[in-house]
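Quick one: structure tokens for this chain, please?
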Amino acid sequence: MDIIVFQHARAEHPGVLRQFFEASGHTLHIVELDEGELIPSDLSVFDMMLVMGGPQDTWQEEKYPWLAAEKEAIRNYVAKLGRPYLGLCLGHQLLADALGGVVGKAIAPEVGILTVSKTEAGRSDPLLQGLPDPLTVLQWHGAEVQAAPTGSTVLASSPACAIQVFRYGRHAYGLQCHVECESSTVAEWAAIPAYARALERALGPHGVPRLSAGVEERLAEFNRNARRLYDNFMRMAAA
């Protein structure tokens, strides 16, 4: 498959998912939007879209004018072309915003190793088949989807965030949590000032080494779950 990837920070890349894509022979076409790279005019040549996280917020179009073009591209790709989409963190929020949902600041930001639980619909959805319930994940967000778009199904939630995973249509998915983490993820993201501030507020001044150690301790589990989710999603995308 030819897969287009929208990134919003060099450090926030597909992580372990990149290894899975490359090992399977798929080609990733990276567009680094925050560095001024342009979205291709013809998205129909791509078999799926992957949209990563980033320090921006969906409502910051004045500060980041390319957000408007990105949302339009997502809307066209998902709603008009009907192609497979996977969005993580900001990519999850952009999917909701682009399709008429509501995104806003979280009442209780989530940063750390936390759990999400499947809804009744999530227990039967093909994306989450074979994954633990509750599912332990890395969280690092201060905004959230507050209302999913019309036509969506909420698949997972947490006590602090009601819409952790949702599906739009048959094969467009948004995940607020991070399944792509690697051993270097926490250190790389902590170098982003907005993320560093969020981490310190949530976990204190020694949060980086604590969170790094926690991720490293559970990395094999995280990567197994990421592989399961990847296999589930790619099976749907191929179909």
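The helical segments are 16-23, 66-80, 90-98, 120-124, 185-190, 193-203, 207-238.
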